[in-house]
Write a structure and sequence with these properties.
rod-shaped, ten-stranded antiparallel beta sheet, single chain, mainly beta, five-stranded mixed beta sheet
Length: 445
């Protein structure tokens, strides 16, 4: 039998393998995080009919090369193009993430083993854990309450499944209002102070107690003279209704017996002349300070003016964003930041880091083994593994996006044509060899 026929058979096999890989690449052209593969061939061993000889010592004869006949082709390797990143696809899903670098997400398999993936199209399970589409836990660092500081802090002692909707993350604690500011302008000629007016200008200061309940304190400003006005906290509202039994009074040096204060302005420049030291506001039930207002509210009115422009009197909780207080916060949204932190926003304005995605980096990522479901497994040739946060690796993440497949369709179709021609040529070797054998058998006729 002819060796060429078996060489042709080996050529058919390797080209069939190459076509299988090309077909798989094209099938996964829209698979999130898929890494394309490539087949390389190598020639097989050779049959040597004459070994190489060197020139004779006498110099009378020269050397001759070896004569060898190859026995076909084999698959040398099937490599994964793992380091080339696919394009970014914006999804609008806050739980999706894309790694801008060579690192991998870490997930936990059903058997507790660690696997790795580039596919960041995550979702949640019934317990609020972050999982892959196949239900594998996404691993990282979770936040827990520090008993010493009372703050949420990431636990970096070990990797854990990331919980997004654990009970400890659903709400944030309220805070009592501790500071307030009265600002604006009080025009002594305002119509409210005319003979037909109400005689009072008022506004509401909204404050929170330590349980997160909101109250409105009505602040009344009455004219004593063109440069003097009394400021009285007259009514406490719970929602839109006056709260029976509750009242608010000022305390501090210069407070009037009824709990009001007198605002005095400079007749020349319209600025307030009272001692700029802050006053405090006490919430009481008529006899005692309320337990939920354990701390008095410091009030600053040093920016009030007495100009002839329109009256614009206002009261706001907090001074420069400090001490405003807040209600109980309810989780309103979750997002993934560029360093892999999972950030939760709350209805009271709180923003907390409740977790952070961890990543794995390999010295030879091409040595990882594909195991399906967009997962890779560690092998003896994948090299050393480093667990780290994405920013520690000098990389970043993009939230609300995923990495697309890095399959190049133009290259795949070109390779398909070349592979088909190679397969066709090897089939011709077999048919031609068969014709030659047929001619040999016909010699006996």
């Amino acid at each position: 039998m002819m060796r060429a026929m078996y060489s042709g058979v080996s050529g058919l096999k390797v080209h069939q393998t190459r076509m299988d890989v090309i077909g798989n690449n094209i099938a996964n052209v829209n698979t999130v995080g898929y890494k394309a593969q490539r087949v390389s061939f190598s020639d097989l061993f050779y049959q040597t009919s004459q070994i190489a000889t060197g020139p004779s010592e006498t110099g009378l004869t020269g050397g001759s090369n070896a004569m060898q006949v190859g026995l076909g082709a084999g698959v040398a390797q099937i490599t994964t193009n793992i380091t080339e990143r696919g394009g970014a696809q914006s999804t609008g899903n806050a739980l999706d993430a894309m790694i801008n670098g060579d690192s991998f997400f870490i997930v936990q398999g059903d058997d507790g083993s660690e696997y790795f993936t580039k596919a960041g199209n995550f979702t949640t399970d019934g317990n609020g854990n972050l999982v892959t589409g196949s239900g594998n836990y996404v691993m990282g660092y979770t936040a827990a309450m520090n008993p010493d500081t009372g703050d949420m802090e990431l636990q970096r002692d070990q990797l854990r499944p990331i919980s997004l909707y654990g009970q400890q993350y659903m709400t944030t604690a309220p805070a009592q209002t501790t500071q307030a500011m009265l600002s604006g302008n009080i025009n002594p000629q305002d119509e409210a102070y005319s003979t037909s007016g109400s005689g009072v200008i008022n506004t509401k200061l909204y404050v929170y107690d330590s349980l997160g309940n909101q109250y409105g304190i009505q602040m009344d400003v009455r004219k004593v003279s063109d440069t003097e006005f009394t400021l009285t906290p007259s009514t406490v509202f719970n929602g839109t209704n006056p709260e029976e039994g509750l009242s608010a009074v000022f305390s501090g040096d210069g407070v009037n017996p009824d709990g009001s204060i007198t605002l005095t302005f400079d007749a020349t420049n319209g600025t307030i002349t009272n001692d700029p030291a802050n006053f405090t506001l006490n919430m009481t039930d008529g006899a005692n300070n309320l337990p939920a207002f354990a701390e008095d509210i410091t009030v600053d009115f040093s920016s009030l003016t007495n100009y002839g422009s329109d009256t614009d009197f206002d009261a706001n909780a907090g001074i420069d964003g400090v001490g405003a207080g807040k209600a109980v916060g309810k989780m309103s949204s979750i997002g993934i930041s560029s360093d892999g932190s999972i950030v939760s926003s709350y209805t009271n304005g709180d923003v907390l880091v409740i977790g952070q995605l961890a990543t794995a980096h390999f010295s030879n990522p091409a040595g990882l083994e594909k195991i399906g479901d967009n997962l890779f497994g560690q092998t003896l040739n994948s090299g050393n593994i480093t667990y780290q946060t994405i920013d520690a690796a000098g990389e970043s993440m993009t939230g609300g996006a995923v990495e697309m497949s890095n399959v190049d369709l133009a290259s795949e179709f070109t390779d398909m044509i070349v592979t088909q021609r190679g397969f066709q040529a090897n089939s011709r070797v077999i048919t031609t060899s068969d014709t030659m054998i047929e001619e040999l058998l016909s010699l006996k006729r």
